[in-house]
Structure prediction request, 375 residues.
Amino acid sequence: MATGTRIEPLIQIDSSLAEPARPAASARKPKKKLVRRASPDRSQIVRHGFQLAFLLLNIWIGGEFYLRVRDFDAGVTPHFSRPAGVDGWLPISGLMNLKYWVLTGHVPSMHPAALFLLVAFLAIAFLLRKAFCSWLCPAGTISESLWRLGHKLLRRNIEFPRWLDVLLRGLKYLLLGFFVWAVAAMPAGEIRNFMHTPFGLIADVKLLNFFRYIGETGLIVIGVLVVGSFLVKNFWCRYLCPYGGLLGIVSFFSPAAIRRDPERCIDCAKCAKACPSRLPVDRVLVVHSVECTACMECVAVCPAEGALGISLAQLPGAKWRSRYLPAWAVALAVAVLFFGIVGYAKLSGHWQTDVPSAVYQQIVPNANQATHPMP
Ligand code: SF4
Ligand code: SF4
Prediction:
């Protein structure tokens, strides 16, 4: 902990764009006395546990949903009811439903889980930066596993030159801008009508069928993403995921951030080296970047007691000091927000899409005829 009160700048530009100059190697040699951490960091064990649990949950949901659709296709009564969690794979529906809810005050009846899951992930982003990406998202988990495998086999990952990296990172905002523009142009009535078309109703089945009957182009795209993720850290999340882009924008307003205590820091730069988002953690006091996923990898490798951690902002004039949050507190906050919001949706009867099985029986086997209603 620092001994004096430190005043943080209210706004810092993305620290990954404007990097403070790194001193020459000789000047960077640790000069301060290292006070070693009293206990080993367990944040990565907890985080990987969350990632695995959420990946298994998604595999379970996907498996149930696949068997249900297969039963409909075969014309038999499905053995499983629809797992509403599949709505988590419909972020555009979530965005449309969020707009509908804000404009009308009514929770939509089609894919309401998409709305509540989006709200849960936005809440996590606001309170704990992009923790969804590094703690929960199955795509993020697969992406992380791939680059770790790539690093193990090739002994390194590719790092694009900074100008190209910045340029590519803009792609996810372009994609996000397109989706936001499309949803912004739809009035509430149009959103409701869209959701009640066969296409809107079985958007989940359409997505599943895309992978079940994937064509050559789809396979090439997935192949490029897999190879890219193998070679480059968080290739999909960093450059292309519009969902991550949205969460990043929300996370900019988060009171939580990685903070460094310069009095305890020995300037070893291990944190910056470990950061998968390539953030110059060792050269800023507060990591304000929208690329920070609260993965705490930087904290895990820091050898100095109290030099680095994630903490809430210190309010001006507040008597209490900003303290680092332990990994279990971050994990607890993620779990409480996720289960709290999902639990509320379930208890209030706003979780399941309320469509009789007979309707699905009619539409699902003919899913390829359910085309997008927009021109
Ligand atoms: S390593 Fe630290 S700075 Fe980098 S993304 Fe993770 S939490 Fe943020
Ligand atoms: S904050 Fe970073 S540079 Fe400072 S001691 Fe920890 S790992 Fe080293």
About this structure: DSSP finds 16 helices and three strands in the chain. The beta strands are 256-260, 286-287, 308-312. The longest strand covers residues 256-260. The two ends are 59 Å apart (CA to CA).
